[in-house]
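re: the backbone from monday

yeah here it is again, tokenized this time
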């Protein structure tokens, strides 16, 4: 029976000769296998069972999904080799499931209570409070993207119709979005404040206030 260091050296030699791939990969695998060995508290690597491997793999995945995938590939390779060399009767890693990372998780839904809480943070003494309220209400009502919002100019707004035209969109097709009464009222309040400051820029959200923009 080979000692653990001899066993790992044989595996490394087999990988380099037969796989003909960079030694860096197998060295990374060996670091994972050495971590498994420490996890086993000096119990033999060739005596491990699938449940123990699952427990160790879960602990590696808790560090990060990326680390978990390296650990999974390492044990699949090592015990596949050990089975091929008839060092073990059955492959304990054969039925292991690799860690999966959730892709494109759904964003949390913003509720009316969330909106109210956000608006409540605007204080009456905030010189730009009306602007911030209008921005929040317009985003909530229209679902505009940030870039679309920032590019808004005065001539894009139709106060009589209660709509905003978005000339540049992701699909490059202009679209018109309706405003809720609340958003329209907030927008009008901001435009009136903006006029009182003698703002000259066409951008809706830009105005000089006490020397600041």
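seq for it, each position gets an aa:
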């Amino acid at each position: 029976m080979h000692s653990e260091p001899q066993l790992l050296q044989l595996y490394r030699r087999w990988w380099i000769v037969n796989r003909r791939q960079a030694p860096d990969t197998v060295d990374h695998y060996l670091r994972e296998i050495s971590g498994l060995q420490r996890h086993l508290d000096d119990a033999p690597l060739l005596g491990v069972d699938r449940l123990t491997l699952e427990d160790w793999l879960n602990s590696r995945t808790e560090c990060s999904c990326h680390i978990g995938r390296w650990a999974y590939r390492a044990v699949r390779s090592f015990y596949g080799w050990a089975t091929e060399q008839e060092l073990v009767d059955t492959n304990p890693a054969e039925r292991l499931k690799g860690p999966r990372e959730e892709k494109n998780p759904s964003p949390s839904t913003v509720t009316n209570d969330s909106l109210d809480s956000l608006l409540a943070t605007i204080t009456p003494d905030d010189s730009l409070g009306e602007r911030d309220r209008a921005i929040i209400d317009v985003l909530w009502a229209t679902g505009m993207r940030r870039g679309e919002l920032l590019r808004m100019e005065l001539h894009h707004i139709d106060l009589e119709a209660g709509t905003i035209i978005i000339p540049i969109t992701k699909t490059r097709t202009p679209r018109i979005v309706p405003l809720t009464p609340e958003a329209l009222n907030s927008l009008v309040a901001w435009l009136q404040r903006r006029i009182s400051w003698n703002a000259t820029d066409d951008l809706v959200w830009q105005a000089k206030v006490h020397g600041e923009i």
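The chain has a mean pLDDT of 84. Strands lie at 157-158, 163-166, 175-178.
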